Amino acid sequence: MDVRELLEKVKTGAVDIEDAQKVLKDLPYEDLGYAKLDHHRKLRSGFGETVFCQGKPDAYLLEIYRRFYERDGEVLGTRATGEQFKLVQSAVPEVVYDPISRILKVERPGKERKGLIAVCTGGTADIPVAEEAAQTAEYFGCAVDRIFDVGVAGIHRLLSQRDRIMKANCIIAVAGMEGALGTVIAGLADCPVIAVPTSVGYGASFHGLSALLTMLNSCANGISVVNIDNGYGAGYLATQINRLAVR
């Protein structure tokens, strides 16, 4: 429950002042010792805190996820494993897991998705990172159009999708190898492009460094670049842009 919802319930009498006080005492964060849960973040930035699952000890992850779920009714987790899904599911049966994007989430039903973000990939191997971006944006309330396998090695595939791409308020271009997709799309589109380098490629791609440097050195205008394989960061930034477009 966010602060506005809580205040509305106090106003209508659905929640009494003492219970509201118990909720508010955890602002700006709830201290678990090993983690400080930022329940105030959505009020400040418009986005609730996301749980980065990778590397967390089982007991810590389980308690962090459970606390967010009990308070907010929905949680987004990234970089989760199948084993972590089973662990969290034991305490939060509503949780769902996508092994491609490694997203572990509980969403409120009937969520409205506004605007439009296009998520494009150079190849099929880039889809896991693209899905992390797409599902992040959807979780935060955006409509997403997935346009996969339109890399520059067969540029006619990309050009055939130009009408779809041009409808978007923001475009996420996900590519490995030499990472040229973002530059080409930015040369066609009239909206911001977020380039995401992936670690897909042969030896001299240096696990995504080649694509990262290409995207950073793009001659096209209107491109921002996130870190290698950072689909979540791209989805978050695209959501901020999309929200401005639909106000």
From TrEMBL:
It comes from the Bacteria. GO terms for molecular function: hydrolase activity. InterPro entries: P2CMN_synthase_LarB, PurE_dom. Residues 115-247 form the PurE domain. It holds the Pfam family AIRC. GO terms for biological process: 'de novo' IMP biosynthetic process. Coiled coil: none annotated. NCBIfam families: LarB. This is PurE domain-containing protein. It comes from [Clostridium] citroniae WAL-19142.
